[in-house]
Amino acid sequence: MDPTARTPPPLHRRRRGRHADLRRPPGPRGRRPIARCGGRRPARLAARAARGRRRRRSRRHRTRATARLDLTVAVQPTTGTERITDWLRAAGAERPAPVVDAATLDDLREGLDLLARAAAARVPDHLRPLRLTKATIDALLRCPRAGAARLAAADEGPRSGPLLVGALFEQVAHLIVERIVDPEADGPAGTFDRACAALAVASGEDVDHLVGDDARDLLEEQLFERVRRFRSSWRAPLHPAWWYRSEVPFEVAFGDGAAGPAAVLACRVDLSFGPTPPALGSGGRPRLLLELKSGRHDVAHLDDLGLYLLAAALVEGSAPVGGAVWWAAPSTPAPHGVLQTLPADAPTLQSAAVRVGRALEVAADVLGGRVATIPGGHCRFCPDRTVCPAAASSDEFGDAW
User: Fold this and answer.
1) How far apart are CA 148 and CA 383, in angstroms?
2) Is residue 216 pLDDT above 60, yes or no?
3) Among candidates 367, 379, 392, which has minimal Cα distance to 121?
4) Is residue 28 domain-shared with residue 155, that is, in the same domain?
5) At CA 217, angle to CA 212 and CA 221, rounded to 5?
6) Closest C-alpha to 183, from 225, 128, 145
7) Distance of CA 187 to the CA centre of its chain
8) Alpha-carbon distance 363 to 119, whole Å?
9) One domain for residues 42 and 101
């Protein structure tokens, strides 16, 4: 036997497949190295390795993207780290200027004038002008029947439950801003009494006959928790260079003619802030608007704030700098509520104008006899909830407060 002859490797070490005939000396530990062709891997092996790298990279990318997405979703709601006074202090330091020019406001008014005249032409004369409020617009866009009930109702009737707590909370918040009350000194019972008295003066609404002893204890607790959070967010009085007003009304008429306006948009803002009145006539900054909500954080309330910014811009001829909505958010761990700001830029005002235009069209439909019913969580606040056949099916949507 020739000692120089190559001994074939054992069967379990023989390479199989396309490159089995490429005989090379065994590598370390008796393993035969991968066959090379011109210093490069065979095409099939290289393609397989590349596919494996792509799959591993794709899995890592999906994992990281999912983590980023989860983080984004987690931080989308405002966390409440900014207090109301911090927002006002930052606005005063930055001295922001309005970002919407007069030409844009003129275009918005002209478009709403045309829509108001077209809507008023479709309704009887005795129903003109079409009077829209924040609640009416919201009802018309959610459910035309609810909007029709809002248009026909002379008033909203007595408040109860969450609406009553919200009305009482707003009165106490105004007193805190005016430095008239100290909730910590008054306690839950004293705060509740002050709120009832302020509500009676503001709207003539007597709360005592609506609330029994058991309900009073519950309302006192709910009100005081919301007041405590607002007091934590409103940490200090305003700087003397600022002024504030509460329950600020804005009323805009559209489509003026010989018989009067075709429609009217009426809004009332909880709190309005701005520089001292003498500075307004000398190029002072426009005001900031603040809406207070006693319930949970809901970004839909930013649409209402957009209406207020639009109404203020059309009334004053100059857009405000911006606005914010503050929620007590009692079900969240935020100790001073949740604050979310909204700039008074062109997209915000245009979006609000679109909502007003759509509400005018729906109002013309319902006053002309075409009334549709869309059940939902809003049914619990509808004036027709006791007689509407769709109200019973709205329970499945849950509590919207």
Assistant:
1) 10
2) yes
3) 367
4) no
5) 140
6) 225
7) 32
8) 8
9) no
The CATH number for 172's domain is 3.90.320
DSSP string, 265-329: EEEEEEEEEEE-HHHHTTTPPPPEEEEEESS---TTHHHHHHHHHHHHHHHHSS--SEEEEEE--
Gap between the Cα atoms of 303 and 134, Å rounded: 9
Calpha distance 273→312 (Å, rounded):
12
Residue 217, token pair as written in the block: 């204890």
d(CA 329, CA 226): 8
> Per-residue pLDDT tens for 286-341?
689 999 999 988 888 999 999 999 999 999 888 898 999 999 988 888 888 999 99
Q: How far apart are CA 166 and CA 168, in angstroms?
A: 5
Q: What digits encode the pLDDT tens for the residues 275-300?
A: 665 444 434 456 899 999 999 888 88
Burial class (CB in 10 A: 0-12, 13-18, 19+), 377: middle
Backbone angle region of 392, left / alpha / beta, with phi > 0 → left and psi within -120 to 50 → alpha: alpha
Neighbouring residues of 14: CB distance < 8 A, sequence distance ≥ 6: 8, 20
How many Å apart are CA 272 and CA 211, to the nearest integer?
31
Residue 59 above 60 pLDDT?
A: no
Q: Is there a single domain that holds both residue 219 and residue 331?
A: yes
For 90, what's the count of Cα atoms within 13 Å in the CB-facing half-sphere? Answer: 9
Radius of gyration of the chain (CA): 33
Single-letter residue type at 244? Y
Sort strands 263-275 and 322-327 into parallel, antiparallel or unpaired.
unpaired
Q: Are residues 39 and 121 in the same domain?
A: no
Residues 132 and 196 in one domain: yes
> Up-side HSE of residue 123: CA atoms within 13 Å toward CB?
24
